[in-house]
Amino acid sequence: MTGEITLRGLVLPVGGIRDKLLAAHRVGMKTVILPRRNEVDLDELPDEVRKTLQFVLVERIEQVWKAALLPAEGKPAKSGHKRKG
Q1: Between the CA of residue 71 and those of 48, 52, 64, 77, 80, what are the distances in Å?
Q2: Which residue among 34, 52, 55, 83 is least enclosed by CB atoms within 10 Å?
Q3: What is the CATH number of domain 4-69?
Q4: What is the Rg, in whole angstroms, of the alpha carbon atoms belonging to the chain?
Q5: SS3 category, 49
Q6: Are 52 and 28 in contact (CB under 8 A)?
């Protein structure tokens, strides 16, 4: 995710989106969370990069939490530790 957040939970646009998305593509990321107001910056991306990334456009921090922190539907949450026994 890239962006800035106000104290009231609004996600603000940021600069350098093209370079950030090219870097995300280069390291193999599949999903990127972006401020909705940066959607116009997606036009600057090469088609082959745009096709490999899934974009989640957000306006509020609650949308970021849902996209980044909640498990995908139908998949169990991973706890990060193993149970003994």
Answers
A1: 28, 21, 13, 6, 13
A2: 83
A3: 3.30.230.10
A4: 15
A5: helix
A6: no
